Amino acid sequence: AREGGTRDGATRARGGRLVSRADAGRYVCRATNRHGVATRNVVVTVEYEPSIGERGCPERRLWLEGTPAQLGCAATGNPPPHVTCAKVGHSRDHPLDPPVVSPKELGDPQDPPRVTRAHAGTYQCRATNAHGSAIRNVTVAVEYGPAPVTLRVLPSANVTRGTTFSLDCGAEGVPAPTFAWALPPAPNLRLGPDNRSVTVTAATTANRGLYTCTASNRHGRSAGSVVVRVDENWLVALVALGALGAVTVLGLAVAGGYYLKTTACKKGEYNVRDAEGSSEAACLHRQRHRHGRQEVFGIQLTQP
User: Ig-like domain: which residues (predicted)?
Assistant: First the structure.
């Protein structure tokens, strides 16, 4: 009879039914006749093939980049099965197959391999003993903080006043990062729907300065910056050309007046009424010497 059981149990044990794992245990064998009793204890072990369940080996795992790369799967079986896990499509000896250890191997004095993004994928875990094997697939996802931010200014970071430009911010990360900006204070800024871009219309001097984009998720953050310059050289040149034009016009007016005055004096083409009492009239009475002779410029008066 099984220890702790009944005689009926012993009878069932001698039957022709299939052995189950519940049959394992300690049994007492008793021999009796009219001369006495003899007993003996017997331990029965039931062996069986491996099995892998969800509780001991979840089919989905979430790893964090930089942590120990360990993939543990608990399997049942007797004798205790040996469990190995390898990435699907790669053999354990394949150079592209990232090394993975089981938790039992972490006692190795050498540092265990660290999780990288290449570890993401599907792994096949196999439990094996003398009576068979069991297989279970495990999907591994790797999370990581935002990678270095890439920040682009289109068409360039040197902007002409009055034009439109945009900035695009990008960063990889799992889970997907969110984006935030530190911008020069200006009213002509518009953020994109996902905060990954900024558009500036009709750029002014208020749009000069440092633009910083920060990408964040639950594992960290990363930032990138760029300096935008608003070029106003064309405006300065336009003002300079305007000033030069004004000076040129004034110079031409003075030169023209002098020319007309001297020419009119020589030709006597003055209107007396207009020239009377002016500096121009004075030239009508000017005398000068030419080759030793005295010349007098005069005008002919006509009756109105």
Answer: 50-141, 148-231
